[in-house]
Amino acid sequence: MPIHDNLSAPDVIADPYPYFHQLRAEDPVHWNPLWGGWILTRHDDVQASFQDRRLSADRMSPFMAGLKKEEARELQPSYQIFSKWMVFTDPPQHTRLRMLVNKAFTPRRVESLRPRIQAIVDELLDRVIPAGRMELIHDFAYLLPVTVIAELLGVPARDHENIKKWSDEITLFIFGAIGVPDRRQRAQLAMLELANYLKAVIAERRQQSQDDLISALIAAQEQDDALTDDEIVSTCALVLFGGHETTTNLISSSVHALLKNPEQRHKLAENPSLISTAVEEFLRYDGPSKSMVRLALEDFELRGKQIKKGQRLLLIQSAANHDPERFADPDGLDITRQPNPHVAFGYGIHFCLGAPLARVETAITINTILQRLPKLRFAADTLEWHPTIVSRALKALPVAFS
Amino acid sequence: MRRLRISVDHTKCVGLTMCVNTARATFVLDESGKSSVSNPQGDTEEKIMEAAENCPVSAITIEDAETGERRFP
What we know:
The complex is a heterodimer.
Chain A: H1 10-14, H2 17-26, E1 29-32, E2 37-40, H3 43-50, E3 55-56, H4 60-65, H5 69-82, H6 93-102, H7 107-111, H8 114-128, E4 133-135, H9 136-141, H10 143-153, H11 160-174, H12 183-207, H13 213-224, H14 229-242, H15 245-260, H16 262-270, H17 275-286, E5 291-296, E6 300-302, E7 305-307, E8 312-316, H18 317-320, H19 355-372, E9 377-378, E10 398-400
Parallel strand pairs in A: 2-8
Antiparallel strand pairs in A: 1-2, 3-5, 4-10, 5-8, 6-7, 9-10
Helix pairs in contact in A: 5-12, 8-10, 8-19, 11-12, 12-14, 15-17, 15-19, 17-19
Chain B: E1 4-8, H1 18-22, E2 27-29, E3 35-37, H2 45-54, E4 60-64, E5 70-72
Antiparallel strand pairs in B: 1-4, 2-3, 4-5
């Protein structure tokens, strides 16, 4: 069967792994004319590319440069915010921002949040248990990460609903939702509303600081003038956004993986101490970040293919994580797998800032669900995934447990 | 200053370079794209401890070179 190039074909969205196996086996550095770039599927190539200084993470500037003049002018206000997101910057700007924000996400800091995360998980489950069923994403997986990240950042609980709404709109742009008219304009509107909201919270914290990330960023700014006002707003927006969409998807895909693999689920329920390796396996097996885009800064050769300056590359993390040369039985779920050198959080300087937090939230969630909802089962015959190229996200996961 | 024994677990290191950026005279990114110790006394103890604390995958271990006492984690 010849390789087709439709990355959003319904069967590829529903189960991308057979397609990625074919690409990796037949053409691991594949030119995709439909998407307009190179598709990388081998574990070694993907990992090395994340560290390759000939590749840039700045895919916003060329995107803006490629727009028609009027649209570029129209989108300028939100571009000013997006372009400062550290995920879209290269060193040295990236290093400066990352060093400052990283302090709030060290494993030790995140460990100290454990009791609070457990309390939120229990509270959310208390609410749904009487009904005997829930839509796992809407009733649980959306709510946990947004609550945790908003508290860490220091935005009031009453505003979480708005934050989720803005974040959903921004997703339309970042994760490239296909077939949504005006998605860029809608994302811009949401981004500007979020930025205005954050400016007000930042002004409050300037008057009265608290033990939260916003106050820490303001303190850093006052100490060494390390951040501009715009960078604080932009970074807070990134943390809020990044802090929940992906974790929501990791939680739902982890529950999904266990429901599909009852033997592994039984093993984990019997041995909750296996949770650390289990979470790594959920990340590898069906992690929320399917791929990342990079841009070539110069011409170079990769596996005999000529990569030209300015061309884009799609580093497929999900394909790397199922590479049979790196992982035995790559399509099987093994919660004791060790070592597990997956690239679900990326690799190199852009390695996920929130990784320690995502790991702890998922570990607490899964062990608590297995303990409190032992009769958990699917409550739907078919499942659907959002049709995006860069993320792996279930639309809904109805479950019952009475 | 007490001498430190610093090690980086290469099965955990993801080449983020947080340690290299924090304690530049102690850690270096090697050819494999992972962090290595270039000089265990390159920076102040405070900087080296900060570098270990900053690692998101807890790949850095620090011990007192004389007593073997664990300093981090």
